[in-house]
Amino acid sequence: MLSFKSFCKYVIVTAMLMLGLSSCHTPKDITYFQDVTDGSRCDIAPEKELVVEPGDQLSIIVHSKDPQLANLFNLPISANRLGQIGESYSNLVSLYTVDSYGDIEFPVLGTLHIGGMKRTEVAEYVKKELLQRNLVKDPTVIVDLYNRWVNVLGEVTSPGRVNITSDKFTILDALAGAKDVKIDGKRTNVVVLRKENGREVAHTVDLTDTRSLLSSPVYYLQQNDIIYVEPNDVRKRQTTANGNAVFTPSFWISIASFATTLLLLIKNW
Fold first, then answer.
1. CATH no. for residue 110?
2. Which of 52, 74, 152, 166 could form a Cys-Cys staple with 79, CB 3.0–4.6 A?
3. Neighbours of 248 (CB within 10 A)
């Protein structure tokens, strides 16, 4: 049987050993793409390009060998710039705003329904209308989408609105635009809110599971998506005064000291 002195030493050593093991533990939920190795292959969700939605703004510029003819199909600011032969194109353009029905009012052509179309499809549609109506013989149509963005919230370095910079924009692009998830972010449960059929639908993404991430229906984002990175447990506990105290060396040293003192008092009772 252990002596009382030996028992006290045992309590202190055990407490210090538990502290050492906990401090040497390597977190498993920090590294991205943990399930892949060199040369491994993963299925990816079907590529999904952004489509025009009500409220979107876009520029549609018609070019032709006859600049004056092309001017008839461009909004005023664009037409003034493009009608001047030899002058470089200006970034100052007028924008079409898509109405709630997915329509825009286009010069000469009238109402065009472009809701649900990709950017390239809008360009082909306008070009086809100009040719079929015999309005322009050699049209070149350039379409650019503007107010496209997603919101990235939570434990990222730079939360806020991130502009969509390509037709195929992924959740990794959005997190990179927010300057990555902070060390306190929970990478295994990133939430993406998306409006579907008039309702906000929540999807969860695990950034540490490559196969799950790449096949997720929200791997390719849509405009107005909301990405939320939840804080991990350590970060959550920081919201209380002593939330993380139990994980500090001073806490376990105090526990060992208190236990030893208590045992001494019991012995001398």
1. 3.30.1950.10
2. 74
3. 13
